[in-house]
Specification:
Layout lengths: L1 H11 L19 H6 L27 H5 L7 E6 L2 H12 L6 H11 L9 E4 L4 H7 L3 H13 L2 E2 L4 E3 L11 H11 E3 L12 E8 L3 H12 L5 E8 L5
Parallel strand pairs: 1-7, 2-3, 2-6, 6-7
Antiparallel strand pairs: 4-5
This protein binds zinc ion (2 copies).
One zinc ion binds next to helix 3.
Amino acid sequence: MWQRIQTAVALIYPPRCMGCGELTETDFGLCGTCWRETPFIGGTVCESCGVPLPGTADGHRIECDDCMKTTRPWQDGRAALMYQGKARALVLALKHGDRPELARPAARWMAQAGRELFRPDMLIAPVPLHWTRLLKRRYNQSALLAQHLGKEAGLEVCPDLLLRRVRTPALDGKTAAQRAETLENAISTHPKRVNRMQGRDVLLVDDVMTSGATLAACARVCLASGANHIFVLTLARVAKDA
Ligand SMILES: [Zn+2]
Ligand SMILES: [Zn+2]
């Protein structure tokens, strides 16, 4: 019976490529062309942010220039895609295009890219969005990614572990330290969820990592609230020269 329903559904809604809408073999996939044009990250990567690095790993911890210059308050970080070309289009469609269905396959790619980050009893939490933005966009893309990632990795997800109290802090003309402080003041732990992260490793999830300032603010808030180690996993990483 279920098989027949599935077949009927497939006839009415044949699987389409998430990138271009062409018919594909499987649901929630990319067609061959889009697959080739999507910059998946593989090979040697920066341990802190996941950006691809030249050369092969020699067993020592390697980091990109950015992460060597900026001390990250988290242990390790990974990203599934480079924020460019088709990947950029997918991220923007998920963020502004009202296409929440993209979150499931995206989370699958993130689970693959972040497999070395997962720890037993780890708690997954998204980077928070201010409620006024939530109203406009209808959903927090990072929370959606976190939820699907939790299923993929078999880990607990706390969608409202962190809250954003201030809408968008004006960061222009401020020093790096002032920016960090402003961001940190804008983010807080949910008073009713703070007990969940006591002594636990927390995996912070976001759609894009640019400078990492927001993720750093979230990480510091978690550490100050009793979390053990922080890890970060993003769908896409912005390269400096991109
Ligand atoms: Zn396609
Ligand atoms: Zn890095």
